[in-house]
Amino acid sequence: MPRRLTFTRIAVTMLIALTVSAVAIELGFWQFHRHQDKAAAVAAFEAAEGRAAEPLATVIPPDATALPDDAEWRVVTVTGTFETGTTTVLRGRPIDSTAAWQYLAWLDTDDGRSVLVSVGWIPQPGPNEDPAVPEYPAGEVTVTGVVRAWEEDDGKSATDSVTRITPSQLDSPAGQEVPGYLMIREICDGAQCSPTVVGEQVPLPEVSLGPHFAYAVQWWVFAALAPTGAILLLRRDAQMAREEDEPAPPSAVKEPRKRRRTEPSDEEIEDAL
Questions:
Q1: Does residue 268 lie within any of the structural domains?
Q2: How many domains does the chain have?
Q3: Positions of E strands within the chain
Q4: What number is the average pLDDT over the span 80-86?
Q5: What are the tens digits of pLDDT across the range 252-271?
Q6: How many degrees, rounded to 5, is the angle at CA 143 between CA 138 and CA 149?
Q7: Average pLDDT over residues 115-143
Q8: Could you tell me the residue range of the domain that residue 121 belongs to?
Q9: Higher pLDDT, 39 or 256
Q10: At a CB cut-off of 8 Å and minimum separation 6, what does 22 contact?
């Protein structure tokens, strides 16, 4: 049986519906902001695509403490010397659906700074395999690479297993850290050039808008439906309560039918005589 509609029940029902609606609105904006971030990344990628390589100091000035807005995805060249003792292995992160080891090392540039370079990757070695060891060219090299922003830190330290490409999880370099790192595309030692230091190049990630805008619209539609559903529920219960309170219509009582006589009465027999 439906509960009677009281002010408390109406208030609690609408409060729950409005709370659900508010949460759905916030989730919608969260997805929309993710869509905006993706759109900005796509725009930056498309703007950098096809542009000629420029010196690192031009794209990221020496006095920059943060990565310039238009720097990510740009192709840059930089000359310097690798700090071979700072090689770091990023283990277990899949590349092309393959468990991989990705190698990172600091390059001391000719302008006194140090830039981190992703120098290549190999498939994750088996338990009985000897992992590849990067063989860096001796002396000064020129590296061409794609600028990437630091990854968001997940709280690990340099003494833990490296999980993010971010300074807090890496050894400190000799020079001032360049804000951002490079995905190597070519390394030249004099007249000899190669696409990477070890293994293969780390491919650029896929940049797309994704389904975030559609998710935002879905959350906002749900936010609109929540109070509407609550109102319809209360109206239904009110209608059912009114129907219960209405008196039942009187039932039609049928008069018993008189029994049809099949034999004459005594008076009828006497008259006949």
A1: no
A2: 2
A3: 54-55, 75-82, 88-91, 100-109, 113-123, 141-148, 176-189, 192-194
A4: 91
A5: 555 556 556 556 666 666 66
A6: 125
A7: 90
A8: 53-205
A9: 39
A10: 223
